Amino acid sequence: MSDDRLRARLVAIFLAGCLAFAYPVLAVFNVRGTVFGVPVFFLYLFCAWAAIIAVTAFVVRRRW
To answer: Residue 44: how many CB atoms within 10 A of its CB?
Structure first.
């Protein structure tokens, strides 16, 4: 994979992360419910954060 394609993919991941943690999206998950005893808001935060890390690792690792 060329450096330009890698850079473009990392920028896309960054923008997706900015969108995932923007106020309108966070407001959707700011409810009083729970999933297995964990508040929905915190579950969304940690799952989105883990997904961004996993996708970034996959894209960077694939280069080597």
So the answer is: 20
Map the chain to HEC letters. Answer: CCHHHHHHHHHHHHHHHHHHCCHHHHHHHCCCCEECCEEHHHHHHHHHHHHHHHHHHHHHHHHC
Number of domain units in the chain: 1
The per-residue pLDDT for range 9-58, each reduced to its tens digit, is: 999 999 999 999 999 999 999 999 999 999 999 999 999 999 999 999 99
Tell me if 35 sits within 8 A of 43, measured CB to CB. yes
Which residues face 39 on adjacent strands? 34
Instruction: Quote the pTM value.
Output: 0.86
